[in-house]
Amino acid sequence: MAAAADHTVVQVDELVETGEIDPETVVTPGIYVDTITVVPAGRNGQ
């Protein structure tokens, strides 16, 4: 869906440096991301 969107917003628990996570765990490639919103774990109502 992100590839077809005009604007893609991603909500994350924390920002990490390149290479800190396994690329196989990435759901939406960064090329499709326009905005990143950081919401610490426990603060997003889940």
Write a structural description:
- The chain is mainly β and 46 residues long.
- The chain has one domain.
- The chain is 0% helix and 17% strand.
- Strands 1-2 form a two-stranded parallel sheet.
- The mean pLDDT is 89.
Strand segment tally: 2
Unreliable stretches (pLDDT < 50, length at least 5) are none
The helix tally amounts to 0
Strand content: 15-25%
Strand/helix succession: EE
The proportion of residues forming helix, as a percent range, comes to under 10%
The shape, in one word, is globular
The secondary structure category is mainly beta
What is the radius of gyration? Answer: 12 Å
Strand order of the largest sheet: 1-2
| Terminal-residue CA separation | 23 Å
Number of domains: 1
Major beta-sheet overview = 2 strands, parallel
Overall pLDDT metric? 89
Lay out the secondary structure.
Elements: E1 9-12, E2 35-38
Parallel strand pairs: 1-2
Give the tags.
46 residues, globular, mainly beta
What is shown here, in short?
With 46 residues, the chain is mostly beta strands.
